[in-house]
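Kindly inspect what follows.
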Amino acid sequence: MAIYQTAGYRVAADGVDRVKQEISAFVEYVRAHEPGTRMYVAWQRQDDPTRFLHLFIFADEAAQTAHSESAAVAAFEAAYRPYLVDGDVIFTDYDLVASNQD
């Protein structure tokens, strides 16, 4: 069963450009190496560019585990963690109600 999740966080203003670079590289890694990650999207808030929201769809628990335990996730966390403000990343799980995607 698919897993739907978001991750939201805020970074210091002086870390925004670095975090955006790290996000781009990380998403490329996910695209190339994680077939069980059906969707990985990262958004930056328009009215507050220090806030980011990532959306994930994992095929199943095995795909989520493979993602979360990867060396790439550890490297990404190490890159953004020094810039975090307002606490840690907030992960939230969701149930799908409806979608226009197949």
In short: The chain has a mean pLDDT of 97. Residues 26 and 32 are 10 Å apart (CA to CA). The chain has one domain: 3-94. Residues 3-94 form a domain with the Alpha-Beta Plaits fold (CATH 3.30.70.100).
